[in-house]
Design goal:
Blueprint (H helix, E strand, L loop, with lengths): L2 E4 L5 E4 L2 E2 L7 H13 L4 E2 H8 L5 H19 L5 E2 L3 E4 L4 E3 H10 L3 H7 L14 H31 L3 H14 L4 H13 L3 H19 L5 H19 L1 H11 L60 H19 L1 H8 L11 E9 L9 H12 L6 E2 L2 H13 L4 H11 L4 E9 L5 E9 L5 E9 L2 H13 L18 H15 L3 H14 L4 H9 L4 H14 L5 H15 L4 H11 L4 H13 L3 H14 L14 H15 L3 H14 L4 H13 L3 H14 L3 H15 L2 H14 L2 H17 L3 H18 L12 H9 L3 H11 L9 H21 L6 H12 L5 H17 L3 H11 L8 H13 L3 H8 L16 H14 L3 H14 L5 H20 L1
Parallel strand pairs: 1-7, 8-9, 8-10
Antiparallel strand pairs: 1-2, 2-3, 4-6, 5-6, 10-11, 11-12
Helix pairs in contact: 4-5, 5-6, 6-7, 7-8, 7-23, 8-9, 8-10, 9-10, 11-12, 14-17, 15-16, 15-18, 18-19, 19-20, 20-21, 21-22, 22-23, 22-24, 23-24, 24-25, 24-26, 25-26, 26-27, 26-28, 27-28, 28-29, 29-30, 30-31, 30-32, 31-32, 32-33, 33-34, 34-35, 35-36, 36-37, 36-38, 37-38, 38-39, 39-40, 40-41, ...
Length: 1006
């Protein structure tokens, strides 16, 4: 019988029959085996064994304890020769092997990659002898020494890969080092240089940002100067490359004249060519630029972006933005998307390595109250995934793919094979479970090669319970691979069979689109075992309210120490996305590196790149998710998790917020075609069509969506916003007021929010303020702020007062909302909310003529924004400096500062666009002003664009077109102003009258 002692990770002894139990599993005897394994062929004296394991026993007792322990171990290990020696004890290395001995041998033989493969976790992780400080100190010392050796081996591999020009491998090894010590500047620089050499300078900058954030958050220290210097060098190189005229010519030649400026007048209602760049949003979220929308939306995730400021197309930076839009059009026009998808195949799809999928376990053991088959499948895939070097498709992903393959009319067996192939697997494991007459469980397993359908091997194992059966089955399957899992699967899942059975049922319900039933089953699993991390994770993932999502992920994160590495990373990534934490990118990188066959890592990688503002870099991983998970589109309800759905929503919103509505519409129609029975893609298409002012088609799409999802609140809001965009304010007000009168509390809050926007667009700002006060009362009743705080629900009122010219009152309210400390938000979300409130307050103080404190306010915003992962927030101080320059009469510097503050023309803080356009008009650059203003018309009405109404934008556009000599376009925009503000408060009614005079003047001039 072959025996192997596993010391890296949870301490255990393995044989070809599975985990060794009995005497060998008793803590002190396990500790003795760990000592012997660490000593290797040198051996260890009895005195040292006594001092470390039986320190409190007298000489006679310790001698008897050692003798009895060795005898029991020899019996359990099956040979009197397994442990050799009398005074000095050592393992018989011909009968008993260990990972730590092989690790040391690999280091001695300069086989660093073998050593790294063997190091599957910290030495004796989680193992200790209660009340034995001497042994614990020895473990700590050895653990530190071995961890250092592992890091040295990783660094050797990284340096060697760098030297031979294998930049992909170098990046992998440096990333693993950086994951072990994320605060190390040397490792961070190693990652950055490897990424640069591999052509991924944006990835290098992303790593620098994560490193800097972690240093600040964990040690309150500034970034290492060498990291800062290297990041600055990369930025210089990127800017230089962006200015290269050759790139511009190459991009423009790809699209020819398709994007050339049309001759003649440009009608005011015609969207401008795609010449600007983006913000990024999470699927179905309200615009991230207003980080705390009405309470009804707080369940939705935050998204951030960090991109360079759009400026008029005549500048070098403007050419760069134009080039980005051209490249996107070129990809669509030339069919490059198909080439990209082929390049995005996973390693398994290319035949580079073995990837295992676990199929169905047929259950012949079932009784009325017990079924072992479903939990066995997921447990087996969970445990196999713990084996170092083995790639395994997760059980949850297999369930989703099987369900969708079955829905296409495939047979049960065929559906499993099809799902495994779709997952990129090269092998399928399935089997049958029986109950023996003595009550033990028997599991017949087989491995099937998916290329030819041949049975590779068949095995039979037995176990006293579900977990023992999985441990034995795992060990038997991997004997030919030379590896072993680390401890029992029960140690990283749950020890409750009932809990795991409920959890497995929850996964099936989720895969079948029953989110409500799945969440109920996950809750029941948690009732059985409150420490079950993955049950908590899926429970939170399927929640509909922000507070429940946050609490669910936080609970899962607390419990994740007991989960497997893959599950621990998934939990951490989900938590980081939910909380807008900066570490999402680093966690996503690890997920992709370790588990490339899973979609989650690629999805989070794309989201992280979006959050960092690397928009074009985000397309590839998001497209990869859609390609890998294309069968996931199957009319699921709006709550059920679907990675491909999330990826499609992200892609649409990238193009939407990049002000490239043509590309966004193309992707939205593609999604509708893939998933015609779901409301979610229809709503995404509706949003694109509304922004493009294709109102008739948008109404049809909205009606189709309502047939699937009868959400009255959503339909009401779509109706109101569409009416506002078309200038039909009577209809907008009628629909909103009806919802206020007959709706429940949530519907009333939404309708009040919408009515406030409609009234502000009409210049009826006194009424808008009254509506905002009613909204605030309902919102604070739903989520009461602390006594010392002012909720962000005050923002609609503050903005209404600003529109009324009551700037000081608005400033005080915005300042007060910076005190908000929502209990469900982490430090990152709170930093975003506070930076946003402070910026609005500073703008209001500037409008009131109180500019004395603007510089200090800009510094305060910069300090707060350092914790935010939003690129927009980091640019806000530049806007405040621009207002200060403007107050001093320094127009040139004001324009430069405000221009630098813009990170997205259609979806940034659109007061910046508006103020920049006013300055551009002042210096005689009306066409630049038009370019700054037009994208605002394609933004969302109820997010950052709510801080300047489109009626105001129409007024300024009319003035710009008039200055540019385009009287037809000017008249059209003046007409929109005259109609909207006709019944406004006196200042707005006067501006409406002025618009009518302007129309008469321009008509007379013609």
């Amino acid at each position: 019988m072959t025996l192997r002692i596993i010391t890296f990770g949870t301490l255990s002894v393995r044989s070809d029959r599975g985990t060794v139990a009995g005497a060998a599993a008793q803590p002190r005897r396990l500790a003795l085996l760990a000592l012997l394994a660490r000593a290797g062929d040198r051996g260890v004296t009895r005195e040292k064994v006594t001092a470390l394991i039986w320190p409190d026993a007298d000489d006679d007792k310790s001698r008897r304890a050692i003798t009895q322990g060795i005898y029991a171990l020899r019996q359990e290990l099956g040979s009197d020769e397994a442990i050799l020696g009398v005074r000095e004890l050592r393992l018989n290395l011909e009968l008993v092997t260990s990972d730590i001995y092989d690790f040391a041998a690999a280091l001695r033989g300069a086989r660093a990659e073998d050593a790294v493969r063997l190091y599957a976790g910290p030495f004796l992780d989680g193992f200790h002898l209660p009340g034995n400080e001497e042994f614990d100190r020895w473990v700590d010392d050895e653990r530190s020494s071995l961890a250092r050796q592992h890091s040295e081996a990783l660094e050797q591999l990284a340096v060697a890969a760098d030297a031979r020009g294998d930049h992909g491998s170098a990046t992998k090894w440096w990333r693993r080092l950086s994951a072990r010590d994320p605060l190390s500047a040397r490792y961070a620089i190693g990652v950055m240089r490897a990424l640069m050499a591999d052509g991924d300078k944006h990835g290098a900058l992303e790593h620098a940002r994560v490193h800097e954030t972690l240093l600040e958050q964990q040690l309150d220290l500034p970034a290492d100067r060498d990291v800062v210097a290297l990041a600055a060098r990369i930025r210089r190189e990127l800017r230089a490359a962006a200015r290269a005229e050759a790139e511009l010519q190459a991009a423009e030649s790809a699209v020819g004249t398709a994007v050339a400026e049309p001759p003649g007048p440009v009608a005011p209602d015609t969207p401008a060519p795609d010449t600007s760049m983006p913000n990024v949003v999470v699927p179905d979220a309200s615009e991230p630029n207003d980080p705390v929308p009405p309470p009804r939306r707080r369940a939705e995730a935050h998204v951030v972006a960090d991109v360079a400021p759009p400026v008029p197309s005549g500048t070098a930076t403007g050419r760069r933005w134009r080039r980005v839009a051209l490249i996107g059009v070129a990809l669509a026009a030339t069919g490059a998307a198909a080439l990209m998808i082929r390049a995005l195949r996973t390693p398994a799809e290319s035949g580079a390595e073995t990837v295992v999928a676990v199929g169905r376990i047929t259950d012949y053991s079932a009784t009325a109250d017990r079924r072992y088959g479903p939990p066995l499948s997921d447990l087996l895939s969970t445990n196999l995934a713990r084996v170092p070097g083995m790639r395994v498709v997760s059980g949850a992903r297999m369930l989703e793919l099987i369900r969708r393959a079955s829905a296409s009319g495939d047979t049960s067996a065929g559906a499993v094979l099809a799902a495994a192939r779709l997952a990129g697997a090269t092998e399928l494991v399935d089997g049958i479970v029986y109950t023996r007459p003595d009550g033990r469980l028997r599991l017949d397993l087989r491995r099937i090669g998916l290329r030819n359908g041949d049975i590779i091997e068949a095995q039979t194992v037995e176990g006293a319970d579900l977990f023992a059966l999985v441990d034995s089955g795992t060990a038997r399957l991997i004997t030919t691979r030379g590896g072993a899992p680390l401890g029992s699967v029960a140690g990283v899942t749950t020890r409750s069979v009932a809990a795991y059975s409920l959890y497995a049922q929850g996964l099936r319900a989720s895969a079948e689109g029953d989110a409500t039933g799945a969440r109920r089953l996950f809750a029941a699993a948690l009732d059985e075992d409150s420490s079950f991390a993955m049950a908590a994770y899926h429970y939170g993932r399927l929640a509909t309210k922000r507070a429940d999502i946050v609490s669910g992920f936080a609970r899962a994160l607390r419990l994740s120490a007991r989960a497997t590495e893959r599950e621990r990373l998934s939990i951490r990534a989900g938590w980081a996305w939910t909380m807008s934490a900066a570490e999402l990118g680093a966690v996503a990188d690890t997920l992709v590196t370790r588990y490339p066959q899973e979609t989650q890592g690629h999805l989070f990688e794309g989201i992280a790149r979006l959050q960092n503002g690397d928009f074009l870099d985000a397309v590839a991983p998001l497209q990869r998710v859609v390609t890998m998970d294309s069968v996931s589109f199957a009319g699921l309800d709006s709550v059920t998790a679907c990675d491909a759905c999330d990826a499609m929503a992200q892609l649409i919103l990238v193009y939407e917020l990049a002000d490239s509505l043509g590309a966004a519409e193309r992707e939205a129609r593609r999604w509708v075609g893939l998933d015609p029975r779901s409301a979610r893609p229809l709503l995404a298409l509706w949003d694109v069509l509304e922004r493009a002012e294709k109102f008739a088609e948008a109404r049809q799409v909205s009606a189709r969506a309502r047939q699937i999802d009868h959400d009255a609140i959503g339909f009401t809001e779509r109706t109101v916003f569409s009416a506002i965009r078309m200038g039909d304010f009577e209809e907008a007000d009628r629909v909103a007021r009806a919802a206020i009168e007959r709706g429940a509390s949530d519907a009333q809050m939404t309708a009040l929010w919408d009515l406030n926007i409609s009234l502000r667009y009409q210049g009826r700002v006194s009424e808008a303020a009254d509506v905002a006060r009613r909204f605030r009362v309902l919102a604070d009743r739903a989520e009461p702020p602390a006594a010392s705080e002012t909720s962000v629900s005050v923002r609609p009122l503050a903005q209404s007062l600003f529109d009324a010219g009551r700037y000081r009152e608005a400033a005080i309210l915005f300042d007060s909302s910076a005190t908000w400390r929502a209990s469900v938000e982490g430090p990152w979300g709170l930093a975003r909310a506070r930076a946003w409130s402070l910026a609005h307050a500073a703008r209001s103080w500037a409008a009131a003529g109180d500019t004395a404190g603007l510089a200090a306010r800009a510094d305060s915003i910069a300090s707060v924004a350092a914790l935010s992962n939003s690129g927009r927030d980091k640019r806000l101080p530049s806007y405040i400096h621009g207002l200060l320059f403007l107050a001093r009469g320094d127009t040139s510097n004001a324009m430069a500062a405000i221009s630098n503050s813009i990170y997205s023309l259609p979806a940034g803080y659109t007061r910046e666009n508006y103020d920049l356009a006013r300055l551009q008009l002042r210096v005689g650059r009306p066409r630049d002003a038009i370019a700054s203003l037009q994208p605002i018309m394609r933004g969302k009405l109820d997010a950052s664009n709510m801080y300047v109404t489109q009626t105001e934008v129409h007024e300024l556009l009319a003035q710009a077109w008039e200055a540019a000599g385009r009287s037809d376009s000017a008249s059209a925009h003046y007409a929109r102003v005259a109609r909207a503000w006709e019944h406004g408060d006196p200042p707005y009614a006067q501006r409406a009258e002025e618009a009518r005079r302007r129309i008469s003047r321009t008509v007379g001039a013609r």
